[in-house]
């Protein structure tokens, strides 16, 4: 048995952008990216799709009016209705109405978790979809409520011998920590609490985040951490993930077939910055043993 899925994040659709905003984003070409992404994702023939948040450009940075926010949501929903595999979402910090901080229109249109939703997506595989903005619209926080909900989901998954994939918008593990920085710079508030919880929650085999628009694939302790770059600029792609029967997790990074758009995005940043967004080869196209997955699926195979 193997399970194949797509991870796409930080698509940042903006229907009326007059400029591209911060690199690598190419917001003036949002429509083109949205239109190109759906057939590219469908071509993977995945069992399911995960969206890591920042579907649109609300939340405070992009001068998005309420009318354009609502239009954004309608456009994205209409295009994603053409996806052939079920898609599961978590909210990002740019998914609220910039005027009110409300996510209500998003909740009305997409199946967005209020706190933590658990969804069976394949035999022996469940998603734990976390809303890290449930208490404050713009601050991603691993709250006590989320912590307790994940612990309950883990207890149920262990009982059922299922693997849990935790999906949340912001990073769990820091990367560049400079002298004077907080140890968890760039991470979700409460990252150290979440990491302790992940150590305890042994059904969580992998986590999936976006937000920082950087590709990274790491085995941290016995958990695979997958951070994925944006789909609105360089490196302009999404991941295909395969969970293999023997417990390996394989990533293949697909780049949208929009070469001039990719080139225009790349032109906006230094080579070093672009290399940071895209990550190393193994951050895009790596294969890692997922030890917890291997243990859970070995047990299931012995029972079948
Ligand atoms: Fe983003
Ligand atoms: Fe974000």
* SS-derived structural category: alpha/beta
Order of helices and strands: EHEHEHEEHEHEEEEEHHHEH
Radius of gyration: 18 Å
- Which ranges are low-confidence, i.e. pLDDT below 50, for 5 or more consecutive residues? none
Give me the number of helical elements: 9
CATH class category label: Alpha Beta
Strand content: 15-25%
Query: Can you say what the CATH homologous superfamily is?
Result: Metallo-dependent phosphatases
Number of domain modules = 1
Number of strands: 12
Query: What helical percentage do the residues reach?
Result: 25-40%
Across the major sheet, the strand order is: 3-2-1-10-11-12
The CATH topology: Purple Acid Phosphatase, chain A, domain 2
Overall residue-averaged pLDDT value: 97
Q: What characteristic shape results from the CA principal axes?
A: globular
- What small-molecule ligands were found? fe (ii) ion
Profile the largest sheet. 6 strands, mixed
How far from one another are the termini?
A: 12 Å
Q: What's the CATH architecture?
A: 4-Layer Sandwich
Characterise this structure.
There is one protein chain. 31% of the residues lie in helices and 21% in strands. The model has no long low-confidence stretch (mean pLDDT 97). The protein has a single domain, classed as Metallo-dependent phosphatases (Purple Acid Phosphatase, chain A, domain 2, 4-Layer Sandwich). Helix 2 links the parallel strand 2 and strand 3. The protein has 304 residues and is of the alpha/beta class. The site of one fe (ii) ion has 6 residues, from loops. One fe (ii) ion binds next to loops.
């Amino acid at each position: 048995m193997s399970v194949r899925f797509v991870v796409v994040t930080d698509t940042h659709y903006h229907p009326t952008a007059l400029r591209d905003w911060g690199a690598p984003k190419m917001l003036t070409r949002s429509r083109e990216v949205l239109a190109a992404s759906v057939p590219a994702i469908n071509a993977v023939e995945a069992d399911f799709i995960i969206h890591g948040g920042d579907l649109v450009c609300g939340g405070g940075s992009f001068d998005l009016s309420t009318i354009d926010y609502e239009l954004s949501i309608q456009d994205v929903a209409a295009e994603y209705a053409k996806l052939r595999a079920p898609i599961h979402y978590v909210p990002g910090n740019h998914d609220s109405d910039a005027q009110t901080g409300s996510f209500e229109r998003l909740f009305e249109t997409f199946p967005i978790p209020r706190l933590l939703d658990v969804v069976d997506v394949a035999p022996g595989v469940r998603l734990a979809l976390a809303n890290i903005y449930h208490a404050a619209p713009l601050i991603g926080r691993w709250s006590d409520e989320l912590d307790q909900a994940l612990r309950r989901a883990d207890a149920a998954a262990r009982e059922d011998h299922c693997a849990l994939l935790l999906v949340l918008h912001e990073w769990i593990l820091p990367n560049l920590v400079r002298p004077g920085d907080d140890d968890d710079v760039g991470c979700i508030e409460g990252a150290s609490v979440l990491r302790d919880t992940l150590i305890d929650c042994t059904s969580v085999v992998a986590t999936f985040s976006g937000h920082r628009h950087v590709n990274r694939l790491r085995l941290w302790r016995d958990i695979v951490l997958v951070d994925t770059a944006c789909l609105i600029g360089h490196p302009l792609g999404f991941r295909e993930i395969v969970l293999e029967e023997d417990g390996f997790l394989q990533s293949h990074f697909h780049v949208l077939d929009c070469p001039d758009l990719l080139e225009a995005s790349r032109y906006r940043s230094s080579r070093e910055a672009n290399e940071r967004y895209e990550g190393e080869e193994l951050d895009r196209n790596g294969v890692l043993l997922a030890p917890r997955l291997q243990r859970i699926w070995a047990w299931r195979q012995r029972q079948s």
